Amino acid sequence: MTASLVPPAGPQRPLALAQLSNSVGDGAFYVTSALYFTRVVGLAPARVGLGLTLAWAVGSLAGVPLGRLADRHGPRGAAVLLALATGLSVAAFLVVRGFLPFVAAACAYACSQSGLAAARQALLAGLVRPAERTRLLAYLQSTLNAGLAAGAGLGGLALQSGTRTAYLGVFALDAASFLLCGAVLLRVPAVRGRAPAPPAGGHGCGQGRERSRPAVVRDRPYIALTLLNTVLLLRMPLLSLGLPLWITQRTGAADWLVSVLFVLNTGAVTLFQVRVARGIGSPGSATRAVRRAGWVMLAACAVFALSAGVPAPVAAGALVAGAVLQAAAEMGQSAGAWQLSFDLAPADRVGEYQGFFGTGVTVARTLGPLVLTSLLVEWGTPGWLLLGGATLAASYAMGPVARRAAGRAGRPTPRPAARPCAT
User: Fold this and answer.
1) DSSP letter (8 states) at residue 198
2) Do residues 138 and 277 touch, judged by C-beta distance below 8 A?
3) Segment 253-304, tens digit of pLDDT
4) pLDDT, position 412
5) In contact, 33 and 159? CB cutoff 8 Å
6) Of the candidates 152, 138, 125, 7, which has an alpha carbon nearest to the alpha carbon of residue 67?
7) What ranges in 74-129 are assigned the alpha helix state H?
8) CB of 421 closer than 8 Å to CB of 204
9) DSSP 3-state percent helix, strand, coil across the chain (nearest 5)
């Protein structure tokens, strides 16, 4: 297990330690935040959901400009500042007592998190050779899951206590974890910022306007790649929402099996993500891994569907088997998507492109609950098969899209020649 969590010596280890520090706090935050906002802050559940949806919508828009700042001024400094900003926004939750202050703090939290993710990816790209990035991201994913599991255990203690002091302690822990993350990132070597390459020929006001626009919004293949990855990421709310609702409303399995499946998934990713990522070092190997993961996810959905209308022991066996397949699909899809997201981004705009690619996570978190509730709870078995089919179709579409985007990889985004300024 240690080999799955600790990357080789060098700048990779502080990156992993920084990931571990804030993931412990996040794990505690995730399992307690809903009850904190409703029981301690006193907000209605509908208002909590609305506020978080608004916050993550704003956060998804902030990822690209914050990623551009990291590219230009240096990703280490940007990552440290955004880690501190995230810690302060979590600390703000300790004092908010109304809906509007809650939304303001949530927006600050979501923007800081989105920017931090983009800056970290840009920092990783500047420190690690391209052939080693996916392997390091696999280590970081294993570290993330281990930290989330440990944090969820701490959050469970707070839930068992049920006191206001316990909830406040969890939020204080999460805020401190991001401050520690920022301190650890200071140990990572600095990476010099890169100004985007100037457009070919000429200069003037047209050039200024062109350079002020994010290049990624004009890169149609990369936009298509992000949209396809968003479809694959609809699996994200499965463990937290889709499967709990499916188990309690459509199967005869015991409710406690929900926690078993969560632990199974987290443990599998912690132990095996690094092994799954081996051999993925190019767009070709990445697209093959994503295609294989698409077939595995289709099989997982079909097995999950078999758990309805059967005796409880059979349903439990089908659910566990489906969870194993789902974890395998998740690891393969994640490793392939990481490789593509880096390889197909211009070398001087990694932060900007990673900020855009990360919006897929936000969209999946926002739309995933609605999509999964409609497909699984309302449609049942056809919904599972439709989810698996959509995942397989998106995984196969990534190949042609990646080939179109490959022409841009590693060089500045083409821009039109400068035109005379308007008078």
Assistant:
1) P
2) yes
3) 888 787 788 778 888 888 888 888 888 888 899 999 999 999 999 999 999 9
4) 38
5) no
6) 125
7) 75-92, 99-127
8) yes
9) 80, 0, 20
**Amino acid residing at 247:** I
Residue 139 in tokens: 């280590």
Which pair of tokens denotes residue 180? 């520690």
State the distance between the two ends of the chain, measured CA to CA, in whole angstroms.
Answer: 66
What's the rounded Cα separation, in Å, for the pair 132 and 282? 10
**Whole-number Å distance between alpha carbons of 324 and 106:** 34
Is the distance from CB of 11 to CB of 131 less than 8 angstroms?
A: no
DSSP conformation class of 95:
T
| CA separation for the pair 140, 273 (Å, rounded) | 9
Tokens of 232: 């694959």
Query: 376 near 246, Cβ under 8 Å?
Result: yes
- Answer yes or no: pTM beyond 0.70: yes
Q: Quickly list H helices, 186-282.
A: 205-212, 220-232, 242-250, 257-277
Residue position matching structure tokens 């459509």: 250
Question: Residue 103 and residue 307: Cα distance in Å, rounded?
Answer: 40
Which residue, 305, 329, 280, 298, is CA-closest to 382?
305
Residue 78: closest CA among 63, 93, 94: 63
- pLDDT, one tens digit per residue, over 361-404 is 878 877 777 788 888 888 989 999 999 999 999 999 999 999 88
Contact 384, 375 (CB under 8 A): yes
Would you call 97 exposed, middle or buried from its count of C-beta atoms within 10 A (0-12, 13-18, 19+)? exposed
Closest CA to 321 of 331, 313, 333: 313
Q: Which two tokens stand for residue 117?
A: 């993710």
Distance, CA of 420 to CA of 228 (rounded, Å): 39
CA dihedral sign of residues 223, 341, 243, 322: positive
Interior angle at CA 388, CA 240 and CA 331, nearest 5: 60
pLDDT per residue as tens digits for the range 97-128? 899 999 999 999 989 998 898 888 888 888 88
Write down the mean pLDDT value for the chain: 83
Neighbouring CB atoms inside 10 A of 165's CB total 9
